[in-house]
TrEMBL record:
InterPro entries: ClpP/crotonase-like_dom_sf (IPR029045), PDZ (IPR001478), PDZ_sf (IPR036034), Peptidase_S41A (IPR004447), Tail-specific_protease (IPR005151), Tail_Prtase_C (IPR020992), TSP_N (IPR040573). Residues 248-336 form the PDZ domain. Belongs to the peptidase S41A family. The keyword Repeat does not apply. GO terms for biological process: proteolysis; signal transduction. This is Carboxyl-terminal processing protease. Residues 1-20 form the signal peptide. Keywords: Hydrolase, Protease, Serine protease, Signal. It comes from Maribacter dokdonensis. The keyword Cytoplasm does not apply. GO terms for molecular function: endopeptidase activity; serine-type peptidase activity. One of its GO terms (cellular component) is outer membrane-bounded periplasmic space. Residues 181-205 are annotated as: Disordered.
Length: 712
C-alpha cells in the first residue's frame, strides 16, 4: 500500500490549516464575531472553489437563513420580512466587517414571534376542528407568501394544526369502529364518540407542540448563531459545514463508531432523560440493572453530590453522564415500575456495532458465497491503527475464505462515505497494484493515490452493490473496481455523485491565545477526486453496469439536488491496466440485464418507485375527513399491494460465520440483529442477482492459485 498517502494528506491538511494565518490577527473579544472572522477566512484561503462575497451571495444567505428558521412560514409576518429586506444586499459587507447586525435583528424578532406562536397555537386548539368542511392545505410552503397580519397567521396555524391532527383523529375513529386494530405508536387511541375523538386529537397535538416548544426553549442564542454561520458556509457547497464543539464530538463518534460513556441512547422527557436504547456490549448492557424505559433524574460523579437533570437540556445532561473510560458515574433512576434506584457504572469505550462491517455466508445448493455489508468507511482520526474499515473488511474477507467462499458481494448501499485512506487500502485488497483514485487540490496539479502492495486478498469473483445513497468513498471504490473491470457494479442508474474531499480544521489551532474556550471546527471542501479513467464522480456519480430500479429511482436524492454543488469536469486518466481475471465479462453483464428485465419482482419495484414519486408530488391535501379517508383507503390499497415486495423469497440461505456463532452464546442482542439482517437478505432480489452474477463470473474466472494472506 502506498505509504506516503497519509503523509500527503497530512501535508495538505497542514497547508490548509496554516494558510498564512500568522499574518492575520483574530483579536475580536466578541465570540460570535471571532467565529465569523475565522470561518470566512478559512473559506477564502482553503476552500477548493471559494465564492465571491458580493450582492448575489448576500441575497442567497438572506433567503436561505429565513427559510432555515421559518420553513413553514408560521412565525414571521410579511412586515418582518419587509423590515429585514434592507439587509438583503448588505450581508456580504457585514461578513467582511465581522458585523452581525442582520443576525441579531432576525434572532430577536424570531424569539418574539415564537413567543407569540405559543399563544396562537393555544388559541387555535381551544376550538374544535370541523372535519366536514371542504377545505385543503398546500404543503408546498416555499410558494406560500408570509402572513400579512396576526389573523392570517392564526389561520395558517389553524390549517397546519388541523392537518397535523387529522391523522390522530382518523386513528381514534378507526379504533372506535374496530377494536381489533393494533396501534403502532404510544398514543392512547381509546375514544367513545367522534366528539371525544376530536377533543383527544387536539389535546394530543397540543402536547406534541408543548414538547416542541420546550425543546426550542432549551436552545440558546449560540445555537441559532450556528444556524446562521452554517447558512453562510452552505453557500460554498453542500458538504462544507461548521461544527460547534458538541457537534464535532458527535461527528468524531460517527466516523470512529465509538465513544466513551455508559452505552445508552437517551431522549429528553419532562421527568428526566429516558433510556430509549441500550447499546450491546456497553456498561449498561453488561450491568443489566437498567432497562429501556427507565428515566435518569440525577447524575453524580463517583460518590459526589448528584445533580438534578430534570428540565435540563439533553445535551447538558449527556455531558454529565458521559466521561472518560474507567471513571464512575452514579445515576439516580426512576425505574419503569416507578421505584427509585441509584446505579453506579464504570464508563468504558462503547462501540456502535451497527457502524462496522459485518459479513455472512450465502448458501445456494452446493455453492457458498460471501457478503460483506459496509455502512461507512470508518476510521479513528486520532489513531489510524485503531479499528478502521479497511482492516475490518480484510479480516472479514479472510474469514469468509476460510469458510469456503467462492465469490464475494460487497454491499455499499446507503454507504455515505468516510475516510479516503481506507478506500485506497480496501481497493488494494482486490487488485495486484496500481492507481485507485486521483485527487486534485485547489490551484494545484493532481496526486495519484495507488496500491503498491502486490499481494491480493481476494482474486475471485466480485460484485459491488450500490444505490442512490452510495456516496463519496463508496463511489471511489466502486469506480476503481469498475474501471479495472475487477468487479461488476449492480444498482441504481447512478450513485449519489459526491466527488469532493473534505478536511476538518479545529478553529482553536488558528489562534495563539483564546479566552472563549472550544470554538469547534470547520469541515471544508479542499479537493476533488477523479476516477482513474479521468472522469469526476461529482454530480454524475458511478453508473452501474447492471441498472436495477429501487424505491428511490424517481425521487431527487443526489448531489445534483443539493444546494450549491460543485460542477463536473474531467482530467487526464491515470496509467492503469484492466483486470485480466475474467472471460466474457461483458456477456455476464448482458445475461444479468436479461434476467432483470424479465423479473416480476423488479417490475413490481419499478411500479412501487413510480407510485412513491406520485405520492411525493401530491402537495395539496384535503382537510375534509371523508375525502381524507377515501384517499387514505386508496393509499392503503396500494400500500397493501406493494407489501408483496416483502413476501419475496430468494430461496437463499444466510449463515453467520463461526466466530460470530460463538459470540451469540453471550450476546442474544447480536444474535437477534443478525437474524433480522439475514431475514431481510433472503428477501433481497438485488443480493439474489448478485449471487447469479457471481456464479457466472465463477465460471468465467481464469485466475488460479492460492490467495494471499491478510494484508497488514
Amino acid at each position: 500500500m502506498k505509504r506516503n498517502l497519509a503523509y500527503v494528506l497530512l501535508l495538505m491538511l497542514a497547508a490548509v490549516a496554516s494558510c498564512s494565518f500568522t499574518n492575520k490577527n483574530f483579536e475580536n473579544d466578541d465570540k460570535d464575531k471571532l467565529l465569523l472572522d475565522l470561518i470566512t477566512y478559512v473559506l477564502e484561503k482553503g476552500h477548493y472553489e471559494p465564492k465571491a462575497l458580493n450582492d448575489d451571495f448576500s441575497v442567497h444567505v438572506f433567503e436561505d437563513f429565513i427559510d432555515v428558521i421559518d420553513p413553514t412560514k408560521r412565525y414571521f409576518l410579511a412586515s418582518d420580512i419587509a423590515e429585514f429586506e434592507k439587509y438583503k444586499f448588505q450581508i456580504d459587507d457585514e461578513i467582511k466587517n465581522t458585523d452581525i447586525t442582520f443576525f441579531n435583528i432576525v434572532y430577536e424578532r424570531l424569539m418574539q414571534r415564537m413567543n407569540d406562536a405559543k399563544g396562537i397555537y393555544k388559541e387555535v386548539l381551544e376550538t374544535p376542528f370541523d372535519y366536514s368542511e371542504n377545505e385543503s392545505i398546500s404543503i408546498k410552503y416555499d410558494e406560500e407568501p408570509f402572513a400579512a397580519n396576526r389573523e392570517e397567521l392564526k389561520e395558517r396555524w389553524r390549517k397546519q394544526l388541523k392537518y397535523a391532527t387529522l391523522g390522530t383523529y382518523d386513528s381514534k375513529i378507526s379504533h372506535m369502529e374496530n377494536k381489533e386494530i393494533e396501534s403502532t405508536d404510544e398514543h392512547d387511541h381509546t375514544a367513545h364518540s367522534p366528539k371525544e375523538a376530536e377533543e383527544q386529537s387536539r389535546k394530543s397535538t397540543e402536547t406534541t407542540l408543548d414538547e416542541f416548544f420546550d425543546f426550542v426553549g432549551d436552545l440558546e442564542r449560540k445555537d441559532w448563531f450556528v444556524q446562521y454561520i452554517n447558512t453562510i458556509v452552505d453557500e460554498f457547497d453542500p458538504h462544507t459545514f461548521y461544527f460547534a464543539p458538541e457537534e464535532k464530538e458527535k461527528f468524531d463518534t460517527s466516523m470512529s463508531g465509538k465513544f466513551e460513556g455508559i452505552g445508552a441512547r437517551l431522549q429528553k422527557k419532562p421527568e428526566g432523560a429516558k433510556i430509549v436504547e441500550i447499546i450491546s456490549g456497553g456498561p449498561v448492557w453488561r450491568d443489566q440493572r437498567l432497562e429501556v424505559g427507565d428515566e435518569i433524574i440525577k447524575v453524580g460523579q463517583n460518590g459526589e453530590e448528584p445533580i438534578n437533570i430534570v428540565g435540563m437540556r439533553l445535551d447538558d445532561a449527556i455531558k454529565l453522564i458521559k466521561g472518560a473510560q474507567g471513571t464512575v458515574v452514579d445515576l439516580t433512576v426512576r425505574k419503569v415500575d416507578g421505584s427509585l434506584d441509584v446505579v453506579s457504572l464504570t464508563r468504558d469505550v462503547v462501540e456502535l456495532e451497527e457502524s462496522y462491517a459485518k459479513s455472512a455466508n450465502i448458501i445456494k445448493g452446493q455453492e457458498k458465497f460471501g457478503i460483506i455489508n459496509l455502512p461507512k468507511f470508518y476510521v479513528d482520526f486520532n489513531d489510524y491503527s485503531e479499528r478502521n474499515a479497511a482492516t475490518d473488511v480484510a479480516k472479514e474477507v479472510e474469514r469468509l475464505k476460510e469458510e469456503g467462499m467462492e465469490g464475494l458481494i460487497l454491499d455499499l448501499r446507503d454507504n455515505g462515505g468516510g475516510s479516503l485512506k481506507t478506500v485506497v487500502e480496501m481497493a488494494g485488497l482486490f487488485i495486484k497494484d496500481g492507481p485507485i483514485v486521483q485527487v486534485r487540490s485547489k490551484d494545484k496539479g493532481k496526486d495519484v493515490y495507488d496500491d503498491k502492495d502486490e499481494r491480493i486478498q481476494w482474486d475471485g469473483p466480485l460484485v459491488i452493490l450500490v444505490n442512490e445513497l452510495s456516496a463519496s468513498a463508496s463511489e471511489i471504490l466502486a469506480a476503481a473496481m469498475q474501471d479495472y473491470k475487477r468487479a461488476i457494479v449492480i444498482g441504481s442508474k447512478q450513485t449519489f455523485g459526491k466527488g469532493t474531499v473534505q478536511n476538518v480544521i479545529p478553529l482553536n489551532n488558528m489562534l495563539r491565545s483564546n479566552e472563549h474556550g472550544d470554538l469547534g471546527a470547520i469541515k471544508i471542501t479542499t479537493q476533488k477526486f477523479y476516477r482513474i479513467n479521468g472522469g469526476s464522480t461529482q454530480l454524475e456519480g458511478v453508473k452501474s453496469d447492471i441498472i436495477v430500479p429501487d424505491r428511490y429511482s424517481y425521487i431527487d436524492l443526489g448531489e445534483r439536488d443539493q444546494s450549491n454543488p460543485l460542477g463536473w469536469d474531467k482530467i487526464t486518466p491515470a496509467d492503469y491496466k484492466a483486470w485480466d481475471g475474467y472471460i466474457d465479462y461483458e456477456k455476464t453483464i448482458a445475461d444479468s440485464k436479461k434476467r432483470m428485465a424479465n423479473s416480476p419482482q423488479i417490475k413490481l419495484i419499478e411500479e412501487n418507485a413510480k407510485w412513491l414519486k406520485a405520492e411525493q408530488d401530491e402537495t395539496e391535501i384535503s382537510l375534509n375527513y371523508d375525502t381524507y379517508k377515501e384517499e387514505k383507503d386508496k393509499d392503503k390499497e396500494q400500500s397493501d399491494y406493494f407489501k408483496k415486495l416483502t413476501d419475496y423469497d430468494s430461496q437463499l440461505t444466510f449463515q453467520s460465520l463461526g466466530y460470530e456463532e460463538q459470540l451469540f452464546t453471550k450476546d442474544s442482542v447480536l444474535r437477534e440483529k443478525r437474524n433480522r439482517w439475514h431475514k431481510n437478505l433472503a428477501k433481497d432480489v438485488y443480493v439474489e442477482e448478485a449471487v447469479n452474477v457471481l456464479e457466472d463470473l465463477k465460471m468465467n474466472n481464469i485466475k488460479q492459485g492460492k490467495l494471499a494472506s491478510v494484508k497488514n
